[in-house]
């Protein structure tokens, strides 16, 4: 769900695994994605799970993080920008304002 142009920044020797999801069209089931994240991390690989928006807002980041934690895998979350506040910002509508 992230822009495919981001993949132009990936190292040449990186292995790309598509795990994309759209409504009713999942390339990998969530449990398969979770298992793959754990497996690759335990093999000592640097794993990046690229998502559009914030992984903890409808992004299954909580489920993936739980699986990694239970497997003893350290991980870092780099939050994205959720549409719940990026769209209003794009339209010039503040999500918070001291006067309102």
TrEMBL record:
Coiled coil: none annotated. Its EC number is 2.1.1.107. GO terms for molecular function: uroporphyrin-III C-methyltransferase activity. Residues 5-99 form the Tetrapyrrole methylase domain. InterPro entries: 4pyrrol_Mease, 4pyrrol_Methylase_sf, 4pyrrole_Mease_sub1, Siro_Cobalamin_biosynth, Uropor_MeTrfase_CS. It is an enzyme of class 2 (transferase). GO terms for biological process: methylation; siroheme biosynthetic process. Keywords: Methyltransferase, Porphyrin biosynthesis, Transferase. It holds the Pfam family TP_methylase. Belongs to the precorrin methyltransferase family. This is uroporphyrinogen-III C-methyltransferase. It comes from Flagellimonas olearia.
């Amino acid at each position: 769900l992230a822009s495919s142009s981001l993949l132009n920044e990936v190292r040449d020797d990186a292995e790309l695994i598509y795990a994309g999801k759209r409504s009713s069209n999942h390339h990998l089931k969530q449990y398969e994605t979770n298992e793959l994240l754990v497996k690759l991390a335990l093999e000592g690989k640097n794993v990046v799970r690229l998502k559009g928006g914030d992984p903890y807002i409808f992004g299954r980041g909580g489920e993936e993080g739980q699986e990694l934690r239970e497997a003893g895998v350290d991980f870092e979350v780099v939050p994205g920008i959720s549409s719940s506040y990026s769209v209003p910002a794009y339209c010039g509508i503040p999500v918070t304002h001291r006067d309102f």
